[in-house]
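Dear support,

I submitted the protein below through the web form. The confirmation email said the job was done, but the results page showed an empty box. After a refresh the structure appeared. I'm attaching both so you can tell me whether what I see now is the final result or a partial one.
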Amino acid sequence: VWSNPDLAIRAWVKLERMFTFSDEQQAQVHYAFAYALAVKRHDEARFWLNKISHEKHDAKLVQWHLANMLREQDWPGIIAYFTPMDKSTLSNGHQYWLAYSYFRQGNTQFANDIWLKLAQERDYYGFLAAARLDLPVSLNNQQLTLPPGLKEKVEQAPGFKRAQAFYELERTTSARREWNYLVDTSSNAEKLAASVLASEQGWHDNAIFTLAGMKAWDYVDLRFPEAYLNLFQRYSRRNKVDLDWSIAIARRESSFAHDARSRANARGLMQLLPSTAKYIGRTSIASKRLYEPNININLGTKYLHYLEEKNRGNQILATASYNAGYHKVKKWIPDEAMPAELWIELIPYRETRNYVKNVFAYRQVYLTKQGKDENILATILDMSIGG
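What the results page shows now:
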């Protein structure tokens, strides 16, 4: 079904006549067909998706069923699909699109009721909902208060001292190994204290990952630090890109680990490939120099500006291009114009789809932390892509 959907459908119809399959076997085949055909945007995807009972729709199938209905702009279908479900089980994204469907059907009150609740959330859909209703965004920031003496106790722990020594020697792999040992042998309170210490030391990625492992999402100041701010200010201004955008890209790419290296060999704070750095910098550069924050941020912001210009100033397309590549994104642009928020939801690659949402949500966090009233996601509502 993945390599030849039409042949698979014909084969299954024939096999059903030849053999008797149990309900469980049929359900397995129906699920496999529904998932594959939805991903491949096949004309018969809806037929197979409807063969799966509601209780068998896991998160993966729900997302693709929603994507197919969004592609067809089937607003009544989305309402009918989500209405029987337990509202407490719906993700923020599902709730947003249910409200959007009510809105497109003229039921503004139902839409606004859902969006009003969503606007209290600190995520992409919460910020979109706030923009819809012209409400201030909610960061839900929680101030971290530690028991007296706890931070000093963790600071004296052997694991912390060893990590600190290795960082001073620039042996970051060994330092993170010691940090992980420290976290693994600490209580939750000690982990919070360690996160504060890490942030004070400039080990921002350690603080971010430690808090994420605890699901301590509301300590916004620690999770979204203004790391390397002077460098981001200098090079964002020099290369003519928005400061909040460049910081959000680095936060998403590396969590501010200057020595980060991906499996694809992207390096440093803004995760640049050596080939990209050479092209943008117009000169050969040693790969190890991409770990230097000033060089990486300079080239990363220059690359952002390049992508923004290539996409005629469209920062949504430029953000997607930073993750997936300009030529790949160009293939995703539809012939007929569609709302930008709908285009983002229909990006074929899950990684890129989530990447764009996260970067714009992170941008909003940084803007709000700076005391600005602007909702950057309002620009998405005013924009169309394609055509």
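Response: this is the final, complete result; the empty box was a page-load delay. The first strand starts at residue 338 and ends at 339.
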